[in-house]
Amino acid sequence: MLDLESIKEAAVRVKPYVKRTPLERSESLSRRLGVNVFVKYELFQRTGSFKPRGAFNKMLSLSEGERKRGVIAVSGGNHAQAVAYAATTLGIDAVVLMPENTPKNYLDAARGYGANVDLQPNIAAAFDKIAEYEAQGRVLVHPFDDELVIAGQGTVGLEIVEDVPDVTDVIASIGGGGMAAGVAMAVKSLKPEVKAWGVETIGADAMSQAIAAGEPVMLPGITSVAKTLGAPAVTDLTLQLAQQYLESVTVVPDPEAIAAQVYILERLKVLTEPASSCTFAAAERLRANFGPDTNLVLVFCGGNSSVVDICAYI
After folding, report:
1. What CATH architecture does domain 4-50+147-313 belong to?
2. How far is CA 242 from CA 13, 43, 139, 207, 224, in A?
3. What is the mean pLDDT of residues 72-101?
4. Which end of the chain has the lower number of beta carbons within 10 A, N or C?
5. Three-state DSSP class for residue 53
6. Gap between the Cα atoms of 97 and 119, Å rounded
7. In whole angstroms, what separates CA 291 from the centre of its chain?
């Protein structure tokens, strides 16, 4: 059952394997928005994103027989690296299905961490091939539609409340919705008055479209530069959690996410992904909801953009 207790159990389970990432107040972002802005630097997590939290929680929960059969995963980048890293650490064989347009740095990293990469024409085709590997006995480590994975990602929320006890607002980006849901559940279970906000980019906006339709919607393709937000659809589980725990989902265009990425690089001296920088772009759009007493936490979920990527974006 997915609840605060399961997130706390996940925190104990994954503690030996993941970093407790820093959370710091940003003077530059605070001045820009006119509120107290804190950054959860999950891009400093092992493999460069929050994903190992969920991957480890899932794989550490497998039986010995399941571990021997190996795991299968689907990813446009960060989940692939996390599954590869966790599997190698735990001595589990891993295959990762990835779309052919995945940036080379993500492919190299997934292979470098020890995964066998199976390239597919697109992310939808990658999801379609899962059943073939499951028939061989492999266990699916889903990037977001799994309560153990969501609980693992939710450990970010526990750390936010520990580090900023007076937090009033949290902004987290949405791919399939597992991280945003887990973080929002953890934070709001501990502090119900906190407002949790989701953000997507145009062209990777499966959650906002699902909320509008009242059910998951399959995107015809991922056109945003924020490829790590590129879930072809959310699921009934993550949609229900978003509806329950998020105030809203803000959708920002790529140019705003890129402008935020550049600003963060110049002022905070960290290279985020557009999937991370879009939280700052969303904060600017949501500014009317904040006041001088606001303590806003932005979750910088990943930092696996390459220098080639950011030059191409600009």
Report:
1. 3-Layer(aba) Sandwich (3.40)
2. 25, 23, 26, 8, 21
3. 93
4. N
5. helix
6. 6
7. 27
DSSP per position, 54-82: HHHHHHHTS-HHHHHH-EEEE-SSHHHHH
Count other Cβ atoms within 10 Å, centred on residue 314: 9
Which string of DSSP letters, residue by residue, matches 79-134? Answer: HHHHHHHHHHHHT--EEEEEETTS-HHHHHHHHHTTPEEEEESSHHHHHHTHHHHH
Residue 297 forms beta bridges with which residues? 38, 170
Q: Summarize pLDDT for 154-210 with one digit per residue, the tens.
A: 999 999 999 999 999 999 999 999 999 999 999 999 999 999 999 999 999 999 999
Token readout for 148 is: 């153990």
Quick check: do 4-50+147-313 and 52-140 share a fold? yes
Mind listing the pLDDT tens digit for each residue in 1-14?
899 999 999 999 99
pTM for this predicted structure? 0.95
Helix (H) or strand (E) holding 148: helix 147-163
Residue type, 212: A
Residue 143, token pair as written in the block: 């990037």
Place of tokens 């906190």: 194
What residues does 201 pair with on adjacent strands?
204, 252
- Greatest alpha-carbon pair distance for the chain in Å reads 56
Integer CA distances (angstroms), 59 to 68, 83, 121, 180, in order: 11, 9, 27, 21
Q: Tens of pLDDT along 232-282?
A: 899 999 999 999 999 999 999 999 999 999 999 999 999 999 999 999 999
Helix (H, G, I), strand (E, B) or coil at 37: strand
81 contacts 51 by C-beta, under 8 angstroms: yes
Q: Tell the CATH topology of 52-140.
A: Rossmann fold (3.40.50)
Please report, for the chain, the start and end positions of each structural domain, with discontinuous segments joined by +.
Answer: 4-50+147-313, 52-140
Backbone angles phi and psi of 147, in degrees to 5: -65, -35
Cβ-contact 302, 48 below 8 angstroms: yes
What does the block give as tokens for 20?
């407790």
